Amino acid sequence: MNFMTSYLQIENLTKSFGDKVLFENISFGIADTQKVALIAKNGMGKTTLLNIIAVKEDCDSGRISFKKDLRIAFLEQEPAYPPEMSVLDACFHSNSEVVRIIAEYEHLCHCDQQSPKIAERYDHILIKMDMLHAWDYETKAKQILGKLNIHDLEQKIGELSGGQVKRIALANALITEPDMLILDEPTNHLDLEMVEWLEDFLRNATMSLLMVTHDRYFLNRVCSDIFEIDSRQLYHYKGNFSYYLEKRSERVAANNAELDKANNLFRKELDWMRRQPQARATKAKARIDSFYDLEDKVKQKRTDESIKLEVKSTYIGNKIFEAKYINKSFGELQILKDFYYNFSRYEKLGIVGRNGTGKSTFIKMLVGEEKPDSGSFDIGETVVFGYYSQNGLRFDEQMKVIDVVRDIAEEIDLGGGRRMSASQFLEHFLFTPETQHNYVHKLSGGEKRRLYLCTVLMKTPNFLVLDEPTNDLDIVTLNILESYLQTFKGCIIVVSHDRYFMDKVIDHLLVFEGDARIKDFPGNYTDYREWREQQLYTEKKNEKAFAQRPTEKQPNASTSLSDRKKMSFKEKREFEALEQEIEALENEKKAIETALSGGVLSNDDIMQKSMRIAEIIDLLDEKTMRWLELSEKM
């Protein structure tokens, strides 16, 4: 029997801000290899709990204990580095000697190798790299940086956007190879390819994981446990996100049934209390005390997440917009080239693509915030845009939440003669009457995003343009927003890395592939992903068949040796590492094949090992090809 090692133990933890209690006497533990997601509504203490565990905030009471010498890496929601620090130093910021040596090696690679001092130091570092077996580590680090699109390692942090800094902080957390990884919204500012790579990386990693994320596909595929903070308490679900949804609905139903029973009893007790004279008997006093306990229970809010928001949208005509041969470049980077598109009435379009391919620039041109180099957007007269921008949070922090909304409208027209007050509208987006009278600066990051979303929707637009609307929103708010968009009587364009959100909302895609290449795909993101994988499989199969064809002319042996480039020091290290990696993969492949033929695995284990063996075969092909390339230089 395998016993898991406890990495983190939390006992009776309580945290409050003034009168607001976030969580009270919660206890839980995290063991090695356990992958845990923390779920709660915005403002319920998710980020605060992570900060307490990372010793960045204090708790009111409780005890936190870690395994001795546990190595922890923490990705904050909004990481910060000194502006003069280089990307390299930020990525390799660690107490690990191996990581520090690799960072110095990378710095020296950008220095003048002709300098005697540099050359001497370079030789010394190469010896240290050998002693610490750092070459494998460096290869993994470079892979992580590449996957997160981090290439200019000498650039200063002060020159980067917030999204780029977040990716650098994520790279730093992964490169240090901790025992336990704490991640606060790790998928924010990642494009879809990065999200899918990170998903695979974490799923296959042996480290334990505690993370906050709203990405439901990510939760489902990576996590083994779900912790939920609800009504100051913590609930533990042993399973992935699908299991959590099932078991939580059972808990909510049971809770609501209990509240119904309490309400019925409360009505009877209330009648008794009204008829009761000012009794002093012990039995009557006990019953009165019991009544007040029951009253507290009845006041608990019934959990009901089937909230539907229906807001009347302004009439929209048949003509929406026509993009007429748009061209847009930034220096040598071309975003659009002679792009033509005629948008249809009630169309729900998703835009996906790598960071830097022009997704946000395209919608900024559509709403008039950016000018095309040439071409034009012909927009219909009835179109009323509602634009939710990544950088649109511009509130007066000293205003109250309710006043922010009332400045736009006192009432919202629902259509059919129905109207809703600003306060009722905010309640649909989970702002309690108490929260509505808070100042904006007291809101969490997710609550501010939710408020911003309210201010966009309540203006009754008929064309919603949403640029990364899911960042920092909790799952309950996302469900409300998705339901609203599915029944929205107007047009929608969504730029998002949230695959689950896109699958529920949009009916076709524009895929920005880079270098002004844009593909119009009829379907949602999952449809596109399946089509793309089939295309890649076909291309790979054709390339393999082409490579195996007999060549007409063999290379001249007498010239091949003289023309051959000599293997560099770094390539020699890579060659030696490849031999070890290929051998390890072969051994792992044999072990899995033995396990699969043993007849004792569960269906889930068979599925997991079958997927892994397919990955191993691909890795062996890739590494063997590289080994053969390098062997030609021996």
Description:
The strands form 5 sheets. The chain has a 6-stranded mixed beta sheet with strand order 5-6-7-3-8-9, sandwiched between helices. A 6-stranded mixed beta sheet has the order 14-17-18-12-19-20, with helices on both faces. It has a 3-stranded antiparallel beta sheet with strand order 2-1-4, with no helix packed on it. A hairpin with a 2-residue loop joins strand 8 (225-230) and strand 9 (233-237). 29% of the residues are buried. Among the domains are: 81-175, no CATH class; 245-298; 321-530, 3-Layer(aba) Sandwich (Rossmann fold); 569-634. The protein starts with 5 loop residues before the first strand and ends with a helix. By secondary structure, the chain is α/β, with parallel strands linked by helices. It is globular. Helices cover 45% and strands 20% of the residues. Mean pLDDT is 83; it is low at 303-307 and 552-564. The chain contains 21 helices and 20 strands.
